């Protein structure tokens, strides 16, 4: 985590501004990802299909020039770290 701060020593209002990154760094010093997408699973550990409301069937993606179709599954975003939480800030 990188942190930058500025001290303001104003009469009657001394205070500090602190700015923290919510992203880490990779070994090559590039920014790390904030989150990643993972397949959403139900309570039994099965993938959750994306259902087309018109047909009530699982959506598929057909690629132009390809003979196959790819079934679409639900996904969710998972944070890479907890640096963006209020609880972590209070620590």
The helix content, as a percent range, equals: under 10%
Helical element count?
Answer: 1
> Strand content of the residues, in percent?
35-45%
Q: Can you count the beta strands?
A: 6
Strand arrangement, major sheet: 1-2
Shape: elongated
Chain-averaged pLDDT: 89
Biggest β-sheet strands, sense, barrel: 2 strands, antiparallel
Distance between the termini: 14 Å
Structure, described:
It is a single chain. The protein is mainly beta. It has one domain. 5% of the residues lie in helices and 35% in strands. The chain is built from one helix and six strands, in the order ββββββα. The protein has a two-stranded antiparallel sheet with strand order 1-2. A two-stranded antiparallel ribbon has the order 3-6. A two-stranded antiparallel sheet has the order 4-5. The longest helix has 5 residues, at 86-90. The protein starts with a strand and ends with a helix.
């Amino acid at each position: 985590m990188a942190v930058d701060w500025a001290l303001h020593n104003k009469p009657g209002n001394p205070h500090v501004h602190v700015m923290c990154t919510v992203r880490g760094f990779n070994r090559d010093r590039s920014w790390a990802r904030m989150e990643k997408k993972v397949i959403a699973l139900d309570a039994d550990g099965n993938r959750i299909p994306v259902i087309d409301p018109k047909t009530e069937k699982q959506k598929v993606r057909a690629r132009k020039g390809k003979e196959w179709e790819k079934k679409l599954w639900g996904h969710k975003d998972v944070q890479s770290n907890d640096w963006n939480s209020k609880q972590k800030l209070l620590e």
